[in-house]
Amino acid sequence: TAKPETCQVKTTCPYCGVGCGVNAIISNDQLIAVSGDKSHPANEGRLCVKGAALHETAGLEGRLLEPQINGETTSWDQAIEHIAQGFRQTIETHGPDSVALYLSGQILTEDYYVANKLMKGFIGSANVDTNSRLCMSSAVAAHKRAFGADLVPGCYEDLELADLLILVGSNTAWAHPVIYQRILAAKKKRPEMKVVVIDPRRTATCDMADLHLSLKPGSDGYLFTGLLSYLADHHTLDISYIAQHTEGFENALRAANSITGNLADTAKLCGLEEQDLHQLYDWFSRTDKVVTLFSQGINQSSSGVDKGNAIINCHLATGKIGKPGAAPFSITGQPNAMGGREVGGLANQLAAHMDFSTPANIELVESFWQAPHMARSEGLKAVDMFQAVSEGKIKAIWIIGTNPVVSMPDADFIRDALERCELVVVSDCMAKTDTTACANVLLPATGWAEKDGTVTNSERMISRQRSFLSAAGNSRHDWQIICAVAQAMGYKQGFSFKTPSEIFAEHAALSGYQNKGQRFFDISGLSELSPKEYNQLEPVRWPLTKGQQNGPLRLFTEGRFNTPSGRARMLPITPQAPLNQVSEEYPLVLNTGRIRDQWHTMTRTAKAARLLNHIDQPYVELSLQDAQHYGISEQDLVEVRSTQGRCLVKAKLSAGQPAGSLFMPIHWTAQFASEARVDSLFTAIKDPISGQPEAKHCPVIIQKV
Ligand code: SF4
Asked: What CATH superfamily classification does 6-56 receive?
């Protein structure tokens, strides 16, 4: 028999925002193994257990392989025509805002680009949002307020160079394991490097912490405004940096002092011992190289934007930004949350980091796209979008690569809204999800191993995700499907792309179009790649203008920001307690998060048996005190109930869980456990600026069943 042909393809992991490089080993059109790509700067050869099991999840079981209309298999031509006609008629009768697209941080930049272009330039509505709204939109808004644009100043290397690393609202060990490994290795080399974890729970990340601050849930804003007051009181501000490179300092300090001007009061507001809080403040004030890594514990809050700005204020006030080992650093959850932001795939964005606030930018994008129906104002953000579906204002919605019936707050409301909607189109690579169950039209999309394009990780690094397996069944790439629908709707000109490299070239060209240095996001240096160069593209950071080979490791090294004055804005922050407070009826606070070995709604990771070895069933974690109070023992079946719904799960007692609060993982769906969809418990409370929903603070009651 002939020896099977084996080859290796470099690609990028499809899970978290670390964006690890992966070597895929292929034999006879099968993915037989993976290894970490040593040449990729994000992971330098490392992979976490999810990434290392990628080849165990690439099989065909569970895949959606044929288009369907109302449960019947159909041809692509019929499915495309059905959608085009449905969208066209809805728009003709009810206007462009009666349709919507809901995308995902899992799809590629090229997919995102054509979806955004179709809605904002051709249909004429900005009703295109994404599940990244649930992940990092508060960080985006905080960046824009402070820096004038959505710019992440640092890089992963800064996490290793820092002398003080503050991890806030992040269980890095489980949610971004390769970043955790990098920090651990750096700390081993330099034991004097201090790590502080700020999290109500004692998580696996605390194992490497010099200090764990188990603060009161939702009190992070107080902690960071308190830090600003402390820095001023102890004369450890960088007065010269403030004077030369910032504006708004006086107001920011006044606001901080009005609530958290005194250490003892701040400690009380945060539920911390005064000496522990002092320890953090003292380290921050004495250390030049400080990185504050923040994630969902900050973003998924009813005041997430303010919390982000409270953190950034402290870095600006001490000049700890734009230097090696010094930055406020937002780490994204999904592999392409940042790529989606780059093309403008959020309802309040336009394209290429421009938004609707500047009429000249709307005209610029309109002229570049030669757009026949240009959207002129923001669309509906995720929570409001599904509300409009429920109210019948949005009559046709196309959901691509995401499972909102599980992941949105008030998840039962989302399911009911979709069940009432006139036309629900769902593109997915998996056949059975809680959301595909609501679809009128189901479109089989290619999966990770088959897709070809680019993603951008949390440190602004664009990497290629390369296709190495044939498309499963009759599946097609998301960008192909979107372009086919656009053409069937009559938009022949703007959607005649034949390859992802053509789309990427247009996206890169738009980023540099009429840019005279006023926009930091500019990758025009990549706009003339030949298909071969695109295919061989090594990981590169943006900005990357014409003539450059790679973008800078850090932004703001010269202290110049993207605001009209060139100065960073310090914001006056009045910290807020979470809007949804406990009551007599619902006295406990429910927090949510990821577990180490599963990804999102488990459609892929649950295929690998070894990933279920870590944790194989949904659970609620509770403190020993609460267990005693409610008469609950380990592994008891319990009901967790809120105003919105109930879950039935097993109890897990934990010394690391503070009294008065519970924790449940986000992953389980009706497919795997009928009553464990944690988001069905949450009320859709959102940050007023970013629209990001609260996912860390839900009042509940627990009882043994
Ligand atoms: Fe994939 Fe994230 Fe794990 Fe890296 S850390 S292998 S990107 S899941």
From this structure: ADC-like domains (2.20.25.90)
- Which residues, 6+ apart, have CB-to-CB distance to 309 below 8 Å? 142, 145, 146, 571, 573
pLDDT at 672: 67
Kindly give the distance from the C-alpha atom of residue 433 to the centroid of ligand 1, in angstroms, as a whole number.
23
Quick: pLDDT tens for 292-341. 999 999 999 999 999 999 999 999 999 999 999 999 999 988 889 889 99
User: Which residue out of 10, 11, 15, 170 has the highest number of ligand 1 atoms within 8 Å of its CB and is therefore the one to mutate?
Assistant: 15
Distance of CA 57 from the midpoint of ligand 1 (Å): 14
pLDDT digits (tens, 9 = 90+) for 125-156: 999 999 999 999 999 999 999 999 999 999 99
The two three-digit tokens of residue 633, written as one number: 């023992």
Q: Spell out the alpha helix ranges (H) of 287-420.
A: 296-299, 304-317, 337-343, 359-369, 382-390, 404-407, 411-420
Distance 285 CA to ligand 1 centre (A): 33
Closest CA to ligand 1's atom 2: 16
- The encoded tokens of residue 85 equal 């006609």
Phi-psi region of 322 (alpha: psi -120 to 50; beta: other; left: phi over 0): left
Instruction: Show me where the domains of the chain are located.
Output: 6-56, 68-135+336-448+470-495, 138-331+565-569, 588-704
CA–CA distance, 369 with 372 (Å, rounded to integer):
9
Q: 138-331+565-569 belongs to which homologous superfamily?
A: Dimethylsulfoxide Reductase, domain 2 (3.40.228.10)
Furthest CA-CA distance within the chain: 79
What lines the ligand 1 site, CB under 6 Å?
A: 13, 15-16, 18-20, 43, 47-48, 50-51, 176-178
Report pTM: 0.96
- Which of 10, 11, 12, 20 to mutate for ligand 1's pocket (most ligand atoms within 8 Å of CB)? 20
pLDDT value for 150: 96
Compute, in angstroms, the gap from residue 681 CA to the centroid of ligand 1: 29
Question: Which strands, in side-by-side order, build the sheet including 68-69?
Answer: 72-73, 68-69, 441-444, 423-428, 396-400, 99-103, 128-130
Give the fold, CATH level 3, of 68-135+336-448+470-495.
Rossmann fold (3.40.50)
Find out if CATH 1.10.3720.10 is the number for domain 588-704. no
Provide the pLDDT for residue 3: 54
User: Which residues of the chain register pLDDT less than 50?
Assistant: 1
Residue type, 233: D
